[in-house]
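Might I ask for a little of your time on a matter of protein folding? What I wish to show you is a protein chain and, alongside it, a tokenised description of its three-dimensional fold. I should value your view on which stretches of the chain appear to form regular backbone elements. You will find the record immediately after this paragraph:
***
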Amino acid sequence: MIYSRNAFSTTADVPTVCVEHLEGAPLSFMTTTAALRMQTLTEPAAVVPTTTRTIKQFDRIRLPGAPWRYAITSNGGNILVDGVPDLSWRIDIDAKVRAGGATLSEVSKELHTRIDDSWVTKFRVADHLFCYLVVKPKAVPEGFLAEWDDWCRPRGWSASQQGRKIYTMPVAVCKSRAVAEVRKRLWENRELADEARTLAAGDGALDAEMLRAADSAIRPRHGELEQLNWTHPNLTVTRATGILAGEEIINWFIKAAPTPSE
């Protein structure tokens, strides 16, 4: 629901607010309307920001409605409780990754043999959990992603691309598992009613399982899932694209969430 200047196009009369800075420079934005409405969303619902970003990358964001009791980062590899990583969750995730197949070191070593500087601008390891490439999309060799995913799958990993980034992720690290864990904790703490519904939004292949597991979900009419024409019986697709789709998603959440009296 936040977008860089390069990632969205909108008319000049749509006001925006910066919600992320990098090294002092503005980086990511929401429409002003979306920011104001997001503040109201925390009243009827337990909002849990959920992202593939690392902890450090997530901490750069200043979303309206914060602070958050729970947040999920690193594609589900970390659960933050009042901003602090939950060590018991991370220990369990690390054990599942080890049991699932290849190690991060093994995967990274193999990936390095398949890439070069002609189309890869950065190689990053994220929170000691997974790795990703920043690439020149038009220069990525034909068939690379499918071939790399074919190597990863038998070893307990997968590969997917979102824009300029190609992610290599352990199967054990996924957002839907972390969301289910947070929901369980909220229910055990009596912060959620038994009949509370889970609502989710996302635009990339790494979001698909989370969207599928939700009671209702929404995705924008752009991004990786749009390119894949991904759909599901519980899914709504926005009418708008770009930053205005982010605004539409927040409106959808507000409409779908229960009112405080319900």
Remarks:
- The mean pLDDT is 93.
